[in-house]
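Task: complex structure prediction.
Instruction: return structure tokens for all chains below.
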Amino acid sequence: MVDVFRALDDETRRIVLDELSVRDGQTLFEICSMLAIRHGLSLTRQAISQHLGVLESAGLVVTERRGRSKFHYFNPEPLSGITGRWPSRKRTEK
Amino acid sequence: MVDVFRALDDETRRIVLDELSVRDGQTLFEICSMLAIRHGLSLTRQAISQHLGVLESAGLVVTERRGRSKFHYFNPEPLSGITGRWPSRKRTEK
DNA sequence: TTGATATGCAAGCAGTTACTTGCCTATAGT
DNA sequence: ACTATAGGCAAGTAACTGCTTGCATATCAA
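Output:
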């Protein structure tokens, strides 16, 4: 089980979340193409697969397997634990 | 300049933010005592000083030096960049 | 079945991180 | 001036992280 904070401590993983938040439900190969073409990241498929594993372990990505493809979906719910830990006191609070 | 995500990827640093959000403006030695007594963390002063340096470099802590003491204040503003990057789509959005 | 596609597992390597140890600077009190 | 207090700098080390390479598994199409 990976911590949400650690999962977010990597620009590649953050970009993956960016991409999934734009187009959800992509496969590993689609994500590889996205990162290579649109972000100039020349990583191997395995490297990206490991990143997806970290994101999934942190609950930020949920997957669904159909046939030989695995679809990845962005789950923003764990992000609430971050700002929820240090609730920024509103100035309207007397 | 340290990334906010990296600064948060450490439980000790997160606890420091917890402590400062409860009692702001503590010195290095006060923070050391807090971590040791209330959290059972037996770290050296230098280790905690380095953590404070990371937090300050990320903008999460601002400091003010008076005499031989340095006071540390929690600045939650950089946290807005985290949830701001992946705005959780509200369900009221059609 | 044969071959191509989509993904998984695991070992190894280089760079980074957290922590310690040792020494140094600066301020305050006597 | 001397001592204690509060903090800073830097090198070294053990553990971890991101990435690659190589091989294996599973699904689909012919």
